[in-house]
Design goal:
The structure is a homodimer.
Chain A (H helix, E strand, L loop, with lengths): L1 E7 L1 H4 L6 H12 L3 E8 L3 H14 L2 E5 L10 H8 L4 E3 L1 H15 L5 H5 L2 E3 L3 E3 L8 E6 L2 E6 L3 H19 L3 E10 L3 H7 L1 H5 L6 E7 L2 E10 L2 H15 L7 E4 L5 H11 L4 E5 L5 H7 L8 E7 L2 H8 L3 H7 L4 H15 L3 E5 L11
Parallel strand pairs in A: 1-2, 1-3, 3-8, 13-14, 13-15
Antiparallel strand pairs in A: 4-5, 6-7, 7-8, 9-11, 9-12, 10-11
Helix pairs in contact in A: 2-7, 3-4
C-alpha cells in the first residue's frame, strides 16, 4: 500500500512549529508495511486542500490528513472534505454526546455553539471518536482508496492513530518494510563508500542502501520490502554480515527502535545498579534525557551541573589544586568529578562530562 | 514572492529524521517577506524530484530544494536537476580546489574519486561554495523563477542560507510578512472564540487570525503582509490593543523571536545577578535548556538534580522532617530546595522544581 501524508496548518509554513506529526505518521505506517511516497504541508485554505487531495489520490492508495479540524473559523478541513467528496455536514449524536461529556468531566464549562458545531461531520465518513478531544477523526472510502482526516494536536492525533487507524490498516496490509541502520563514527561517507564499493555493487536491486551523514558520523541504512518479513530480515542480515568486517574500525552499533536512553535504563535495571552524573559542558542535558524515560527514578539517583570551577570545587568537592594543575577540561578532573558524584549520591556508577562549549567553530 | 520547499530524502519518509530543515527555511523566508505555499518531502528518486519541481514551478516564484547532494550513489538530485534543466555536469575548478582544501585542512585524508565527482556541477547553475562541506549549493534561473538546491546536512544548509541565499533574495523582496502571537493559558479555543467573536468579525480581510491549541494553552496569531512594514505592524498592534482587554485573565505574554531561555539570560545579565537551580521532576531539563544559550556561564552557576528524597536530603541538605511532614511534592519542600541550592552555589537567585512525573494520564 502506498500512502501520502497531508499536513494542514499555516503554523508549519511560517516555521512556527516543527512538523513532528509527519515523522510520527511515517514511522507508524512504515512499521505496518505501508510506504510513504510524499509528505505535503499546506495552509488552511479550501482550494489548496482540495488540490493536494486530488494530486495525492492519483499516486497513493491511502491519504492521511492532519490538522484544520478545530472549532474556530480558521479551520477549513471539514468544508474542503465536503466539497471534495460532494458531501454535506450532519450532526452526529454520538459525537455530540462525547463532546458534552468531555466538557462536563474535564473542561468543567458549559459547551457553546462552536463546540456543538464540532458534532457536525460529513455524512459519508466513518467517524472516529477522539477520546482526548472534541475534533473527530473521519475515514472516507473512494475508488477503493482510504482517506483519513485527523486532528493536528499531536497527542490527539497519536491516540487516534494507535487506537483506531493502525489496527484497521494492519488487517489489510500484507506487506512488510524492513529498515536496518548501522551507526559509524570517524570516517566520511565518501571514504566509506570507496571502501565498501564492491560490497555495495553486489547488493540485490531490492535492497536500497543509503548514507546518512552528519558531523563526525555516518549512518548506513539498508531497506527492503516484501510479503515475507522473515525472509526480508534474513536477506538484509546476510548482507550486513558481509559488511561488518569491512567497517569494523568505525562501526559502533545499530540504531534501534528503542532510544539509547531506554537501552541505558534497561542495562542498569538488569544489573540492579544505580547512576549519578556530574555534568559540566553538557549542562544537565544527560540527566534530563535519562529522566524523560518513565521508570528512570529506579536507577538514576541524580546529578550535579557544575558549570564553573567554583561549583566543581564547592559542590562536587574536586580538589582545587587538581584543576590548577591540569585545567578543568582534563582527563584528571573529569575522573575526579565522576568519583565525587558517585560518592555523594552513593550510586554504583558515577559519570562525568567536561569540555569547552561555545558558539564558535572548533570550540565545541 | 511565493516559495515552495522541496525536501529530498527517504529518511524523512520513513520517519527516521524530523524535518527541521523545512522549519528553518520557512522561518527565514517569512522574515524577508517570502510566503511559503507548500513544503513537499519526497524520496531520492529522479522522476519524483522532476515531477515535484515541475509542479512547484507552476505555483511558486522560488523553489528551495534540500538534500540528495552527497557523493554516494543514493543521492540523485544533481542528475534530476540536469535532466530538468536540460543541462550537463561539468567540473568546476573552484569547487574542486575547495574540496581539496577541506580534505587537507579538516578531514586530513587524501580525496578520492567520489569527492572529485562533487566538483561536477550543472553548467547552467551559479555555484554557492559550501564552506562547511563538499556539496555545493546551486542556483538556477528559469522563466524568471529562482530554483536553489542546497545540501541536506542541517549546519551546511543553514550556513549557505544565511550567507549566500537570504542576502541575495532580500535585495529583490519588497514585501513584508508580520506574525504576532499571543500566549494564553487556562481557556479552551472555543470559549476564547466565543468571547472575542465580535472582535474577530471586525478584523480587516488582510489580517489572518489563527488559534493554535495545545494541552492547557492556546496561542493566538495575527498575520498580515504588505509593502510597508511599519504600517503592517501598526495595523496589527491596533487590533491587539482592542483584543487585550478581552483576554486579560488568560493572556500571559507574546511569543517572541528570541527563545525564552535567551530572554531569561538577558534579564539576569542586565541585573548582574546569578542563578542556581534544584530540579526534581524536571530532571535537569531547565539547566540543560539554559546552558544551551551561548554566554549562559556568565549568570548560570549550576544545578542539582535531586530526583529522590535521599538526594534532596544528602546533596541539597533539605530537612528530612520537612519532607516527612509535607511530602516531597509540597510548597514547603520546594521552597527549601530553592533556598538550599542558592546557598550552595552562592547565587543571587535559587529556583526549584518539584512534582510527580509519570507516564500515566493525570500524573504529570
Amino acid at each position: 500500500m502506498l500512502a501520502e501524508i497531508i499536513c494542514i496548518g499555516d503554523e508549519i509554513l511560517i516555521g512556527q512549529v516543527v512538523n513532528t506529526n509527519a515523522t510520527f505518521l511515517s514511522k507508524e505506517l512504515n512499521k505496518i508495511g505501508i510506504e510513504v511516497l510524499q509528505v505535503t504541508s499546506i495552509s488552511d485554505n479550501i482550494e489548496n486542500i482540495k488540490n493536494s487531495l486530488n494530486s495525492a489520490m492519483k499516486k497513493a492508495d491511502l491519504v492521511l490528513i492532519t490538522g484544520g479540524l478545530g472549532p474556530t473559523n480558521d479551520d477549513k478541513t471539514k468544508i474542503a472534505l465536503c466539497e471534495f467528496f460532494n458531501d454535506k455536514l450532519i450532526s452526529n449524536p454520538d459525537v455530540l454526546e462525547h463532546i458534552i461529556k468531555i466538557f462536563k468531566d474535564y473542561v468543567k464549562k458549559p459547551i457553546n455553539e462552536l463546540n456543538k458545531n464540532q458534532a457536525l461531520v460529513p455524512s459519508k465518513a466513518k467517524i472516529l471518536i477522539n477520546e482526548y478531544g472534541t475534533a473527530s477523526g473521519m475515514w472516507f472510502r473512494k475508488n477503493k482508496k482510504n482517506i483519513i482526516s485527523l486532528p493536528g494536536v499531536p497527542f490527539e492525533m497519536k491516540h487516534l492513530i494507535e487506537k483506531e487507524v493502525i489496527p484497521k490498516l494492519k488487517e489489510h496490509s500484507t506487506f512488510h518494510i524492513v529498515n536496518k541502520t548501522l551507526l559509524t563514527y570517524g570516517l566520511g561517507e565518501s571514504h566509506i563508500a570507496k571502501r565498501i564499493e564492491s560490497w555495495e555493487k553486489e547488493l540485490p536491486k531490492d535492497i536500497k542502501f543509503a548514507y546518512l551523514p552528519n558531523l563526525g558520523r555516518v549512518r548506513l541504512r539498508l531497506s527492503s520490502k516484501g510479503i515475507n518479513e522473515k525472509q526480508i530480515h534474513a536477506k538484509i542480515d546476510k548482507h550486513i554480515a558481509k559488511l561488518l568486517p569491512l567497517i569494523k574500525d568505525i562501526f559502533v552499533g545499530y540504531e534501534e527502535d528503542a532510544p539509547v536512553e531506554m537501552q541505558i535504563q534497561n542495562l542498569f535495571k538488569s544489573n540492579e545498579s544505580t547512576l549519578a552524573i556530574a555534568e559540566s559542558c553538557t549542562g544537565g542535558e544527560i540527566s534530563s534525557r535519562l529522566t524523560k524515560i518513565p521508570g528512570s527514578s529506579e536507577y538514576f539517583l541524580g546529578g550535579i551541573t557544575a558549570y564553573n570551577n567554583a561549583a566543581k570545587k564547592e559542590i562536587l568537592g574536586v580538589d582545587e589544586q587538581l584543576i590548577k594543575t591540569h585545567s578543568a577540561v582534563s582527563k584528571e578532573v573529569s575522573k575526579e568529578m565522576a568519583i565525587r558524584v558517585r560518592e555523594k549520591f552513593k550510586s554504583t556508577y558515577g559519570v562525568s562530562t567536561t569540555g569547552t562549549a561555545g558558539p564558535s567553530l572548533g570550540e565545541s
